[in-house]
Structures are given as structure tokens and as C-alpha cells.
Write the C-alpha cells for this entry.
Amino acid sequence: MNRTLYGNLIFELSKKGRKGYSLPQDYDRTHTTAELPAALRRKEAARLPECDELTVVRHYTNLSHNNFGVNDGFYPLGSCTMKYNPVINEEIAGMKAFAGLHPLQPAVTCQGALEVYYNLQESLAELAGLKEFTLNPCAGAHGELTGLMVIRAYHESRKDAARTKVLIPDSAHGTNPASAAVCGLEVVEVKSLADGTVDVEHLRELLNEMGSEVAAMMMTNPNTLGIFEPRVLEITELVHKAGGLMYYDGANLNALLGECRPGDMGFDVMHINLHKTFSTPHGGGGPGSGPVGVREGLEQFLPTPRVKKVVVNYDIPEDGPTEWEGFIVDWGTDSSLGSIGNFFGNFGVMLKAYAYILSLGSENIKKVGPLATLNANYIKESLKGEYLLPIKGLCKHEVVFDGLVDKTTGVTTMDVAKRLLDYGYHAPTIYFPLLFHESLMIEPTENESKETIDAFIAVMRKIAEEAKTDPELVKTAPHNTPIGRVDDVLAAKQPVTTYWKSLEV
């Protein structure tokens, strides 16, 4: 491990008795602090680091330089759409008029926030081709669970309790089967063809065998390989004829944004990852937002609260207005799922997404999908000589390689990903999807310039050349990072979560 003074842990910089603050000697704390009950007090003082203020500031500032984000460089993380988040998004989300609101305020005192919420619902419904959205779910997987709960409530309302199976392609994101299981539904796998698309004949067999038990089919389109499902209309028709609903996983919506809509393909329920498709930052556990949209006829099952636009009538004498257009918080009916989280979801994320939509406007938002697709195909065509391309033809927003073409060097996808760090790039998604042994999934997004992509392509080619001429250099990468290659398996099995535990070890 390469450590400078400020690469150390804060505990290692600690000096007994050193403080980062100074209070007057006659400072009386009795009027500013409350006495804690004995049961809540520590039996011994907390083992906290003791450092001067400047050391603390420099330590955490230098640590922040080891972080990597879209503002630092190219972040081609496949299926995650790590796109640029303009500063104006953050400024709007941080406005005191929004950030200072309390969720328990009366609706009449926060009409502006409710209007943003309502307008975003309407915008997403238009972009998705669906009737209505709820913004309450706090993440993509939370949205999946909520959408499946809507589907389950729909079947139960029809006294069709036998529908407990969910069909999921074998190329799906791992959250799909997990969400179905959490919802109490049984997962049935649908096979893929050699080109990565759904095996429609296998789907037909499953529907003939268990159609009356199928609650829904979950799909991502384009799929996890970045391939558009050419028979999507046939798939949705087959499932609908069997009495099931179609669920759209919005993880890859960035490829379609402005070009086509899930609702027009026959999907009944979907979630959107605002923290991917609509430019709000994500990673490190959040914050996220996973709005769920439904076709007409399913609105009553959406969770509450919901924001609705109304016209209020007033009995005002003389010449004053008698009508006022405003927004109310609706807590739904007995058919609603009820609450699936605290209040209205992650409102700050919604503000950023709405700012992004307004910034692009209806004209420029139509360019998102085509530009993302163009960038991905440019990378695919540029690298297919050095990196194995298992599926030929047009991809959408992302491309999946199966490691290096030359397998004799022993250099793996993991090695390539680690070597990229030395050149200042975040690694793409690796070893997913599981359909290929050495998967390397690259998603450039629509924001990246040709110059940025050309530079990335040049580095990828250089690493492929290094794999032939000096494979050990690649196998032992990274060499220029504060921490070299760690033992991921050991870290997962025996995590050291505190400094004091590391001393004991």
C-alpha cells in the first residue's frame, strides 16, 4: 500500500490530547446541553481520533481526490448509465425553498413542490407511454417490488389467486428474480437464443404449460446484452393472451429515450431509474429513485400518497376569483397498496430529474437514445478486432465483449479492468451478464464526445497490446493507485470494518 501522510487512516494521524477546537475557559455548557439518561450513556469514552483542524481538513480533502466520478473522467459502467449530472441540477435541488420543506407541512404551504412532483409524473408518463406514475419508490429494485405488488394486487382483485409465477429471461438483471421472490412470487426462467434475445418458442411452451399460473413476465428492452428484442410485440401479445401482465425493467431505458416507449410495446407496468436515465447521480448506495408507471386501468393499485391536480371552488364575494387550480395529496382507496415508504420518496432526486427534462426540452430529449446508441456502436466496431464480440450486429446503448480475442496470454477481463485504472478510467462492468465467461460491458452514454471515446478506445487497444507483449504488467495492475490489487474474496469473507478491529487482527 502506497501511503503518504494523508493516505493514512485518520486514527493513525491521531495524537493524544490534540484538539481541533477551542472554547472559552468559562464556557458554560449547562444551558446548551441536556442530561442524557444513564441507560444511554457510554460506560467508557468513545475511541475517537484526536487531530488538529488542519490535519482533518487535509486528510479528508486528499481522500476525496481518490474518489472517481463522471466529473473526473470517463465512466463507462454498463447497464448503469453513469451520465453527466449538470451543476444546475444540484443548485435547484439545494434551493432553500425546496430543501427546507418538511414532509408533514399542509399541502397548501408547499404547492410549488407538489407542482414539481405532479409535472414530473406527467412527463414520465408521456415519455413511457403509460397512464400514471408514482414517484414514491426510493430505488430501482424498490420500484420493481412496487410494480410486482401492483401486478399481484391486480390479479387478486380479479379473484385470480393462482397467478403466482413470474417469467424472467436468463439474461435479466439479478434484481428481477430477487424482487419477484420478495413479493412472494415464483420465478420461472425463460431461455435466451444464441444472439441473446428471448427464445420465443420456449416462452410459448411455458405459457402452454402454466399459462393460468403466470402473473407476469419481466423484461428489459434492450436486454442486458444491449440488444433490442425484435419480437417484443409478439412476446407481449402471447403473455397477454395467457392472462398475464408485462413488466418493463427500465434499467436500459436510456437507449430508447425519445425514440420509442415501453407502453407502445405492450408493457403494462414499469419502473424508471431516475438516478440513471434522468441524470441524477448514483452509486455508493444512493440516493436513488424508482418511479413506477402503469397503463390505464391499473392506477387504483398504485401506492399512496399520490399528488393530484384539482380545481378548488371558493365562495368569494364581489369580483374576486372563485376558482383556484392547485395540488392535493391523495391517500387513495382500499384498492391502493398503501404506503411503500416514508412520505413521497427521495424528493431531491426528483428535482434533479425534472431539471434535466426541462433543460433538454421535448426536442433534445429525442436525441438521447440515438446518441447513446451511436457511441456504443462506435466503440463496438472500433474494438472488435482486439476484444471478442460474441454477438454481431447492431447493439443499442451498451456493448458486451467476451474478454480479449487472444486467450493465450492468460490476461482476464479482471486484469483489463484493473489496468484501465492506471490510465485514469473507471472500469466497465465486468463478469456480467453471466451468459459469457469473460463479459466486459461498456456503456458510453450520450454525453461523451468523440474525442473522449477515441481516447478510451486507444487505451483499450494499448492494453490488448500489453497483454501480448508484457502480460505480467496487466496481470499485476493497477500500479498507480493508492491501493494495489486486493483480495476481493478475503475482503468479502473476513471484512475488517473498523480501525480497532484491524489492530486486533
About this structure: The chain is about 35% helix and 10% strand. The mean pLDDT is 91. The domain at 88-362 is CATH 3.40.640.10 (Aspartate Aminotransferase; domain 2).
